Every structure is written in C-alpha cells, then in structure tokens.
Amino acid sequence: MAITQRQTMDTVRGSIELRVSAESHMGASRDGNGDAFLVLGSIFLVADGTGGYPADAHAAQMVVQTFAGRFAGVDLVTADDVLDAIGSANQAVLSLSGDSPGAAAAVAGLGLMSSESGEDIYWLLFNVGNSRVYTWSDSGFGTFSQLTVDHSVAQEYVDNGLWTRLEAAHSPARKAITRVLGLDSRIDPDVWLLPISQSPAKTGFLLCSDGLTERLNDDEIARVLGYSQDRTDSPAERLIGAARALGAADDVTAIVIECTREAAG
Questions:
Q1: How far apart are CA 52 and CA 33, in angstroms?
Q2: What pTM was estimated for this model as a whole?
Q3: Phi/psi of residue 162, each to 5°?
Q4: Cα separation of 220 and 239, whole Å?
Q5: Residue 264 phi/psi, 5° resolution?
Q6: Could you tell me what percent of the chain has a pLDDT over 90?
Q7: Residues 90, 181: contact at Cβ < 8 Å?
C-alpha cells in the first residue's frame, strides 16, 4: 500500500505546503503485514503491531481505526484530542486480548495543531514504543536526526551509559519494548511541541517502524532520502525499496513529510 499527496494550509503566519508519501510492505519472514499507517488531514502516524500475525495486524489496524475515527474531518488537532486518542487506542488494543492474545502495538505520530492564541502552528510529536520520528532541514541531510526516544531495554542501556548507540542498534534488546499500547490500562506516551514559525523554511520528517531502522542506520536513511529529486519514485518508496533490497525480515513502514513554509506577505 502506497500513498503520495500534496496539501496546502493557510495560517495567520503564512502558508504551509506538505508533500507526503507513505508505504508499507510485509517483511520477508512474515505471514502478513503487522504494520499500518494513517495519513489523514493534519494527522500522520505509523503503528507497528506485536504478538505475531494476525494479532499484530489486528492491533495496528485498531490503532489506525481509532485515530481515523477521532480525526476525520478535523483541520487541526489538539494536544488533548491526541492524548485521548492514544488512550482510546490503548483500550481498543486491550479489548483484543480475547480473540488475539498477545496483541499490542508501538506507535509514532505527528499532528498539526494551533497555539491557544491561534497565532502560531505547532508540530505535535508523540510516540509509544520503538517506532520513530526523524527530522532534517533545508540546510541538508547532514541535519538528519532522531526526535523520538525509543522505549526499549536497549535505549535504557544507552541512557545509563552502559552501551553506545551502535551497540544498542545491534543488540536483540532493541526489540524488548518497555512501553507499548495494549499491555496495561495505563499508558505513558512521550509528547513534544515544535513551533513551525521557528523551524527552517523547509523541514522534513520521517515516521517509521523498526523494520526500517533494523536494515538501514541513520546515515543510510539520510543518503536514501537525499537521492535526486528527479526520480519518479517517492521518498517513502525509496526507503522501503532500500530496506527490502537488504532482505528486510520485519514489516517495513515509512511516512515522509516534506514541509515548506512561506511567511505571510
């Protein structure tokens, strides 16, 4: 499944153009795709189901359906609505335990929201688990960096100075997730706000499941994204293709958002 679209939004600060591409592909060792994604108005998310097929697919789809139902027809999200949607998605995945034991899902997302005064627009980032959000600016892909922090045993080892990021990337502990939707009635998502007015005129974001980052490190992802813009395939298609060329065993999902901001005259 692949999506490519362009949308423009007018704000009091000027206009915002979003070029979005998204794709998801089943892993070579999987019986079905346990990932899902949502591109809907001003909300974008990747859900990575766990628990084995088909439980993982049910969990990921439940997350997407919950967010789609909450934000259909909504121009801009609010922080409260996103947090409520995360909580509702968590309860929805928990409800699968009877028919799909072990079902759970990691999620990473972005939404556009307005400040309380209505004078600025923010990117709202959120994640639970080890799906990620990256960013880069118009100064080049040398600025490519991870915004979210993995909720995994490997990341805790890095945070405590016991491992380097390279050691964590090659450890099985990267798959040991410490937070996930569908395992507990209480959920603790990470949330960030990034004011668009203080961002570069051109900013990019990548949302992805760990199927991508298992096959491509950050430098390799940046190089793939930096390929000639004259290519006919989308940025998301290039990333999925690169991961599959390396024998991606896990399901791979990517959403690439290229944001161009023009100040009001």
A1: 10
A2: 0.94
A3: -90, -30
A4: 10
A5: -60, 145
A6: 69
A7: yes
Query: Quick one: which of 104, 108, 153 has its CA closest to 132?
Result: 108
For 37, other C-beta atoms within 10 Å of its C-beta total 25
pLDDT at 1 over 80: no
Return the H-helix or E-strand segment holding 94. Answer: helix 79-94
Q: Is 202 exposed, middle or buried (0-12, 13-18, 19+ CB in 10 A)?
A: middle
**16-30 tens-digit pLDDT:** 999 999 999 999 988
Inter-residue contact 101 to 55 (CB < 8 Å): yes
List the one residue out of 233, 184, 183, 224 whose CA is nearest residue 204: 224
Instruction: Give the strand pairing for 43-50 and 132-137.
Output: unpaired
Read off the pLDDT of residues 164-206 as tens digits, 9 standing for 90 and up.
Answer: 888 888 887 777 899 999 999 999 999 999 998 888 889 999 9
Whether the upstream peptide bond of residue 172 has omega within 30° of 0, thus cis, is no
Order of strands, sheet of 140-146, starting from the edge strand that comes earlier in the sequence: 2-11, 14-25, 252-263, 202-208, 132-137, 140-146
198 SS3 class: helix
Residue that has been written with the tokens 């949330």 in this structure: 191
Distance from CA of residue 70 to its chain's centroid?
A: 18
Tokens found for residue 22: 């998204």
What is the spatial distance between Cα 265 and Cα 129, in angstroms, rounded to a whole number? 42
Residue 126 token pair: 């959120």
Q: In whole angstroms, what separates CA 153 from the centre of its chain?
A: 20
